[in-house]
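WARN retry 2 of 3 for item q-0093 after timeout on previous attempt; input resubmitted unchanged.
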Amino acid sequence: MTTAFVITVDGPAASGKGTLAVRLAADYGLPMLDSGLLYRAVAVSLQRAGGDLDDQDAAAAVARGLDAAALDDPAFRSRAAGEAASRVAAHPAVRAALLDLQRAFAAQPGGAVLDGRDMGTVICPQAPAKLFVTARPEVRAQRRWRQLATQGEGVSFEDVLADIGVRDARDSGRAASPMRPAPDAVLLDTSEMTIEQAADAARRIVEAARAGWVNS
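OK item q-0093 returned
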């Protein structure tokens, strides 16, 4: 048994995985990595430099120079950044460029919480606790639409739902590290749950995994 207790929280956009990852990190006193912000940062930085999101080499060059400590730019959390991130994340060279950075984060003493789409399948397949968080597309679109409204982005629910569908198809259909549950991940559908109910369910899943890990 290793001394690092790693929790991976994978799932599609607006499933609630980010909120649950933050809660779990606080509960267990662990650092948390939002891997989606890495790809958002790559995409926005590339666009600011006048680059093309479909230029794999240029996107990979940005990824190799990314500073994981500089992810607090509000522009990274916009709707446009999310769409752009999904495009650069499909490039194998970009994913390869960010691989070591993410694995180094997971290898910190004590462990970490990793939020993303391939944390439990590619980045840290040996993680003791793995969750795959999901919800119905309409529910996820409603959540994202409300979030964007609070950020001052005037967008229709129908457009957000369409975006969700496009991102789901791109993330699950890409050749490099497609989004899918790890074989040993526990599925958590938050469609009918409040935040507190989902957080309680996530803690129970992690506690069960932790008990097995400690006793292994």
